[in-house]
Amino acid sequence: MKNARLACLALLVAPFLAGCSGFWDKPVTPTPPTTLSSGFFYVLNLATSQIAGFSIKTGVVTAVPGSPVTLSAAPIAITVAPNNAFLYVSDLTGLFLYTVSTSTGQLTIGNNQQPISADQAASMQVDSTNTWLVESVTGTASLFAIHINPSTGTVVSSIPASVQLSNSPVKIQQITISPDNTFAYVAMGAAGTAVVAFNASNTNNPFGAVTIIPAKNAAGGAMSVAVDPITTTTTKPRLLYVGETAVTTGNNTGALRVFNYGTLQEITGSPFGINGLAPSAILPFSNGTFVYVLNRQVSGSSTGLIAGFSIATSNNALTLTPLASTFAAGTNPQSMVEDNTGNFILAVNFGGNPDLIGYTINSTNAGNLDKVISSATGTAPVSASAIAALH
To answer: Taking the complete model, does pTM exceed 0.85, yes or no?
Structure first.
């Protein structure tokens, strides 16, 4: 797992693109105005080695008490436990635990300020029982699970469980765990997407058999992965989404592949073009009727964009229909989340312009995203690299 250090250091030598300025100097005015408020969310600022915590109060981005929190090294990944009691962040010195005040959003470092693991996790998520922190480490061929105490967030066993994904090291991009705790999914670049059986009640090792979904094109690979938050119904099955590069023809060759969650059968029409090159994040909206794909790169432009699809079932046939419009992000967008009120979709941009954008779903033109928040997340440049929100 120590091999991740060189991979993580590569993040630091990437050019720090200019971000926005002025967040700490004056309040941010939403455009267009909104009276909506959000739950708490947290942004990793790579250039300043900080966690910046916020909420939106009647349309204004407001820092939580004690924010920003300065880290000992450059951050890599962040996740919030489903019980909203704990936040985990990995940096170049290890993996750290923070407790979360659900009333104020303030973070307090736990575990006596010591890392709970030396792993430099590239992606991670806590399962729905709050007993396993599943993590990936770039440069390895395995997926790891740290057994944690759901009451304290600390480690139960110092030796993580693991499962081998490949016979050789893979470039792990992202992991996610299905809401029903049945599978963990790993986007592994050119190596495709790993589907790993998962059983949280097995306290020795929650991992089971591994199935690989090969990349559609040998010249591309899986960058992102997500699962519908809704439960399986008779009208719409739960879906698995994989964002891949170099799939379609034309200038913007990125695509969204869509599979039936249970059978892993790719649905009719998949892969779907996403008007960009690099699908860095996928967000299935909580109501189950829309899915959004964040493009880190678009041909001929330094500005990323979000492509959206409506999801419907008619005559027992499942269809994804591209929304009529795409939605502008900032420069080199990295990550997006839905806040736990369902009022906002939030995206962060590594190159700024701005660092943070908040969108609402247009109530008239269903599925369309209206940009209502535009904000910096610190003193520019911050290189906002990831975002996590309370569940």
So the answer is: yes
